[in-house]
Amino acid sequence: MSPRVTTPSEDFLRGVWQENPVLVQLLGLCPALAVTNTVANSLAMGIATFFVLTGSSLLVSLLKSWIPREVRISAYILIIATFVTMADMILAAVVPEIHKALGAFIALIVVNCMILGRQEAFASKRPVGRALLDAVGTGAGFILALLMIGTVREVLGYGSFLGVPLFGETFEPWIIMILPPGGFFTLGLLLLAFAAWEERKVERVHPRHWPHGVTVTVETGGDAHG
Amino acid sequence: MSTRLPTVEGSPEGPENDGPSTFEAPARTASPRLVATLALAGALAGLVLVAVHQWTQPRILEHQARVLQEAVTEVLGGPESTHTYFRVEGAWTARPPADADTASADRVYIGFDATGAPIGVALAAGEPGFQDIIRIIFGYDPGAGVVLGMKVLESRETPGLGDKIEKDSTFVAEFRGVTTPLIGVKAGRARGDDAEVHLITGATISSRAIIDIINHRLEARGEEVRALWRSGIAPPPTVPADPGGER
Amino acid sequence: MGELIWIFVSAMLVNNFTLVLFLGLCPFLGVSAKVGTAVRMGGANLFVLVITSLTASFLNAWVLPHAPYLRLISFIVVIASLVQIVEMAIRKLSPTLFRELGIFLPLITTNCAILGLAIFQTNRGYGALEGLSFALGAGAGLTLALILMASIRERVELSDVPAVARNMGLVLVLAGTLSLAFMGFAGLFTT
Fold first, then answer.
1. Span of B29-33, B167-171, B211-215 with lowest mean pLDDT
2. How far is it, in rounded angstroms, from Cα C48 to Cα C114?
3. A122-139, pLDDT tens digit by residue?
4. What span, in angstroms and rounded, lies between the C-alpha atoms of A190 and B158?
């Protein structure tokens, strides 16, 4: 099974949309749902994760020839944990209010399956430049997903965006959106919406004109929305 | 339907694998080399973290001290200076011995006015509310037996309902000048007692939690604080230190 | 004692690890298709949670006061080793169980619930006994959420759900309704 050679832009774009870590691969859901009740928090968590992902991918790719295969997972986890601890301390020192809002979930970046997954699947096997592109793409995809969820939750749950009120005094906020069920509903409905959209795309490209009684299942390319 | 389970050890095959390593390695690295590599990595990681820690700790502590100072000032009604008193071996002191374990010691913050007379004692406490633990700080005048003010430090109460304990300024103002022990009353049931605090409609449990926190805290330490107050406290002679960083 | 009970009930119901705190979602979504597997996963999680809690209490009390910035690294190293040991023990003691759990055991390592427990326990300053109560409640809550979700999903599997909705989106919406139901536990054990 030799993977076909991918172009740099493919390595980058793949993480942003087609293999979006949250919306397609369903990784890193804990932070994606827990801190997305406001857009500011979503952005902060996304950036912190981005920092950890790119830093550790860079380091893993640089050091890949020195890390013995048997202890590679432990080594990756050590590297990731170091970056996360750094991010935690830096956030606490520079933006203490946001650090308090994100709370324990900053530390939980270390168990974000997405990061370890990228090291194992990509950074440990590719040159530094590609690993960096992959990390940046995946990180950007993560931020994008978090922003999507966060926007829905803040607009409906607080009636504001980044703290700026959008609707007038008469708007009754949908409190449920900033509570835990709201997180589940938002992501769930987003995924259902994507699945429905994919289904339509398939229908348009391969319209089903088959004789009565014959069912055809169509494989949708490489991605897996639903 | 595809549910991509995150691969951790990199092996979807699971049980067919034998031993902790997940692929057949063509040549095994010698154990000492493995240990040495991990040890080296650990040491380097430690060094980096120590460096970042040195750089960030002062700012973090300074911010924590500032937040605490603001809270104490707010609940005591604007004292000129404040000092932290630690409870070491049953006695309250502003200057604990060097070997005392101040990190886990109970503490109160005493505020003094410009003439050096004490104006009140601020105590922090926390107890479970409706959703989770609520942490508050409140000012107390042991001489008059009166609460001077209350501020919520941490709460996870329901937004829009329970979080009124912080957001409803009328409720917060109820705590100024109320006699201890506090009595919570629902709207319309007040009898005009000095010790009454009106509970927030729709958030009675969260409101009652605050009242309970204050009452319980004073039950536990009230006697000692009153004794300390009666013994006559003056600000410690040296340059006022910031109230100890809350950990 | 009352406080220990509150910690247990809070971790299991009021602040359920999965449905309120959003921890342990990977196994929750991945393993909850069948009640049998859900029960076993819950049990494995409970076991690892209890051991993690005890170890975290020990580390917090004796080792980490000297180097607080190494907390995260030491926690994760301990958890990873624990899971490795549990995996080897299960393989020896019950190969059937091992075959059923398969990949999910290593998943416990990167399970936010385990590390989350260690971190929450530290932040709240729990001692060994409180930590134990916390871990038992958390494990019970995780198992409860898993079993509930698995029961629902087994029925959904047999229901007339449109093909476009037969995916994780539906599972998440179902989780949302469960979470909504669990909101009803707030205020339990208060005056």
1. B29-33
2. 7
3. 888 888 888 898 899 999
4. 25
Binning pLDDT at 50, 70 and 90, where does residue B10 land?
Answer: very low
- Of A26, A66, A226, Cβ closest to residue B4: A26
Q: Which two tokens stand for residue A225?
A: 């929305």
The pLDDT, as a whole number, for residue A222 is: 47
Backbone φ and ψ of B152, nearest 5°: -85, 125
Instruction: State the distance between the two ends of chain C, measured CA to CA, in whole angstroms.
Output: 16
Q: How far is residue C45 CA from its own chain's centroid?
A: 6
Q: Burial, A65: exposed, middle or buried (Cβ in 10 Å; 0-12, 13-18, 19+)?
A: exposed
| Contacts for B104 with CB less than 8 Å, ≥ 6 apart | none
| Reported pTM | 0.81
Q: Is A178 on the interface with B (CB under 8 A)?
A: yes
Q: Which residues pair with B138 in a beta bridge?
A: B123, B150
**Matching residue, tokens 């057949």:** B24
Chains touching chain C through at least 3 C-beta pairs below 8 angstroms are A, B
CA C81 to chain CA centroid, Å, is 18
User: Of B25-34, B147-156, B175-184, B217-226, which range is least confident?
Assistant: B25-34
A61 versus C107: the higher-pLDDT residue is: A61
Those residues whose C-beta lies under 8 Å from the C-beta of residue A92, and which sit 6 or more positions away, are A99, B56, B60, B63
Residues in chain A closer than 8 A to C112 (CB atoms): 30, 108, 111
Q: Please name which of C128, C114, C113 lies closest in space to residue C7, comparing C-alpha atoms.
A: C128
Residue A66 φ then ψ, to 5°: -95, -10
ipTM score of complex: 0.87
pLDDT of residue A6: 77
Check CB contact under 8 Å for A82 and B10. Answer: no
Contacts of B32 (CB under 8 A, 6+ apart): none
Q: Is B145 helix (H, G, I), strand (E, B) or coil?
A: coil
Q: Residue B199: phi, psi to the nearest 5?
A: -75, 150
Instruction: Please give the C-alpha separations between residue C100 and each of B15, B200, C33, C38, C94, in angstroms, as whole numbers.
Output: 9, 52, 13, 11, 10
What does the pLDDT read at residue C78?
Answer: 82
